[in-house]
Amino acid sequence: MLSYRETRDLLAGYGIPTAPGILAGTVEEAVGASDRMTGSGKACAVKLISSMHSHKSDKGFVRLGLKDHEAIGTACRDMLAQLAEGEEYEGILVQPMILSARELILGALVDPQFGPLVAFGPGGILVDVLGGVDFLAAPFNGAQALAFIARNAAVPLLGPVRGSAAVDPGTLASCLVALGALIVENKERIASVDINPLVSDPESGALMALDFRAEGRPE
């Protein structure tokens, strides 16, 4: 599994935007990072980053809506206490609270039979409720990406939702094209990429990967 920083930099290298965050090494660093991330009085989220625990929410390694140093410190210490004795972890990720009316999933993998593929559909818990994740062989162009999006179950999520701005289909298509290029150009060293969820800013509709991971190939 690639590290958080390696995955973030890989996505950024292909123009796929990621949510802001500071990866802290200790509880004290996480508390200090919260001020730099959100400013005084604004809520933040903390997440334990470990290659051993990819499904963080299921393990209790995600804490949301933390508004002061005491709450952040308590949440961090509680998460660390759940690790096995001597278990290593990459860090504690501190992010501003990002409230989005929609969650999407993007993914890429190298299938033994079909080669590089890109996945898209409803994200977050909706992927378990609605299903609807479709696959498209990479590489592909923007027009093909738009047609791919248009026939997906996530289409109703792309319009204005509860007053939030709609997602621009062209921007979403560009993310899919970029992910396709990523997996094609790195298929010898990257086995898969998972972005879940991809969220949008409520005011601008701008997209960003909130949680992501990438699996490398054995050397």
Summarize the structure in short:
Helix content is 30%, strand content 27%. The model has no long low-confidence stretch (mean pLDDT 90).
CATH class of the largest domain: Alpha Beta
The fraction of residues assigned to DSSP E strands is 25-35%
- Residue stretches low in confidence (pLDDT < 50, at least 5 long) are none
Amino-to-carboxy terminus distance:
12 Å
In CATH, the architecture of the largest domain is 2-Layer Sandwich
Approximate shape: globular
Overall pLDDT: 90
Helical content class? 25-40%
Number of strands: 10
Tell me the radius of gyration: 18 Å
Structural class assignment: alpha+beta
Q: What is the CATH superfamily classification of the largest domain?
A: ATP-grasp fold, B domain
How many domains is the backbone divided into?
2
**Largest beta-sheet details:** 6 strands, antiparallel
Q: What is the string of SSEs from the N terminus onward? A: HEHEEHEEEHEHHEEE
Tally of individual helices: 6
Give me the CATH fold name of the largest domain. Answer: D-amino Acid Aminotransferase, Chain A, domain 1
Describe this structure in words.
The structure is a single chain. It is built from 6 helices and 10 strands; from the N terminus they run αβαββαβββαβααβββ. The protein has 219 residues and is of the alpha+beta class. It has 2 domains: 20-96, ATP-grasp fold, A domain (Dna Ligase, domain 1), CATH 3.30.1490; 103-216, ATP-grasp fold, B domain (D-amino Acid Aminotransferase, Chain A, domain 1). Strands 5, 6, 7, 8, 9 and 10 form a 6-stranded antiparallel β-sheet that branches. A 4-stranded antiparallel β-sheet has the order 1-4-2-3, covered by helices on one side. α2 (27-38) packs across α3 (69-81) and α5 packs across α6. The longest helix is centred in the C-terminal third of the chain and has 17 residues, at 169-185.
